[in-house]
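Weekly modeling sync, notes
Attendees: S.R. (lead), two postdocs, one rotation student

Agenda item 3: backlog of single-chain predictions. S.R. asked that every request posted to the team notebook include the full sequence so nobody has to chase files. The rotation student volunteered to paste the first one in as an example of the format we agreed on. Action items at the bottom.

Example entry:
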Amino acid sequence: MSDSTTTTVTTWSLEQTSPADLIPAHVPDASSGIRIERAAVPSPEFSRFLYTAVGGDIRWTDRLSWSYEKWTAFLERPGTETWVAYEHGTPAGYVELDAQPEGAVEIVYFGLVPAFRGRRIGGHLLSVGTARAWDLAERWPEREPTKRVWLHTCSLDGPHALGNYERRGFRVFATEVTEEPDAPTPGPWPGAYPEGAA
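Predicted structure, as returned to the notebook:
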């Protein structure tokens, strides 16, 4: 395959190994209308909306083919949580947590709807999501206490993604470079994103 049909993608895996590693971002004042709360009722419709709204311009495609049943089974697993940021009642982004064996919690997805990027919401959302990963066992007594919070991000996620994670106290523990086929972003529809938001 020629270079013109592939993209070089760098993927970084990052972790925290103690709650003390977390460096919280500035908390928006009440007048900003920013609040973060857990979507405590598993909802495939809502989770798929968040997934496509946040990831449509950065090639999140692995879950587009998931059935309703697969979404439901994933969201109902003990220790799976979705934390949503709202601005004046409108969903602005989310963090999805997945409890794993041996006290690990993965931040599986994190991001903002394009129209809400660049407004100092992401750092706060990541801070809250990471803190909830560290205290996850308090809400799921059958889970062992969190010993490690980890995630991965890649060069397709945008120019500020890696820096945001590092500012919150995550450390890179692995880097991988791959060639991936060029593909159009999946949506949500042409022209949906404000100029310069992506």
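Discussion: group reviewed the output briefly. The chain has a mean pLDDT of 91.
Action items: rotation student to repeat for the remaining queue; S.R. to check formatting next week.
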